[in-house]
Amino acid sequence: MFKNEKPYSGYIYSLYPQTNDTMEVKCYYLGKEHGNWRKYSIKGTLTESRFFVNGAKEGELKAWWPDGKRKLDYHFQNDEYEGNYKEWNYNGQLILNLNYHKGYEEGVEQMFYDNGNIRANYIIKNGRRFGLLGTKNCVNVSDSIFKN
Q1: Which top-level group of life is the source organism from (predicted)?
Q2: Nearest to 85 by CA among 104, 72, 95, 94
Q3: Which of 6, 14, 62, 104 is the most buried (most CB within 10 A)?
Q4: pLDDT digits (tens, 9 = 90+) for 12-57
Q5: pLDDT tens across 51-110, in order?
């Protein structure tokens, strides 16, 4: 970010045109994203919070639906996904539960349908996937044989 052809240090505020209330707050240091960035709903509730350090994503990114329920929770280290990554649907149902190491999926990975049923459940170990990937509409053989 530059101002008058010089790297900008400071805050930038975006306002909702209807109310002139704060929509977003971004901060920069020497032209790079730095510090806590926040987004707000038109009603003034916090909808997203994330951190940057010298232009790189760092720490937690959290977001909430307009009613205040959790929407997502990601973790970053050195501008890459690191650790647990979760997303919830509007009704509060967990739909993604993933794990990352240095930007790559590693460990137990789970995806869920909006009703809570498992969509994918697998493990990534040494770059290889093991388990139910959820890429095809697979049906358990016993489910298809014993249906009434």
Answers
A1: Bacteria
A2: 72
A3: 62
A4: 999 999 999 999 999 999 999 999 999 999 999 999 999 999 999 9
A5: 999 999 999 999 999 889 999 999 999 999 999 999 999 999 999 999 999 999 999 999
Task: Write the DSSP assignment of 58-89 as a string of letters.
Answer: -EEEEEE-TTS-EEEEEEEETTEE-EEEEEE-
pTM summary value: 0.81
Residue 119 CB burial class (10 angstroms; 0-12, 13-18, ≥19): middle
Position 100: which residue type? Y
Give Cα 138 distance to the centre of its chain. Answer: 28
Contact (Cβ atoms closer than 8 angstroms) between residue 29 and residue 12: no
Nearest CA-CA partner of 87 in 120, 66, 111: 111
Rounded to 5, what percent of the chain is helix, strand, coil?
Answer: 5, 60, 40
Q: Of the candidates 114, 109, 53, 126, which has an alpha carbon nearest to the alpha carbon of residue 88?
A: 114
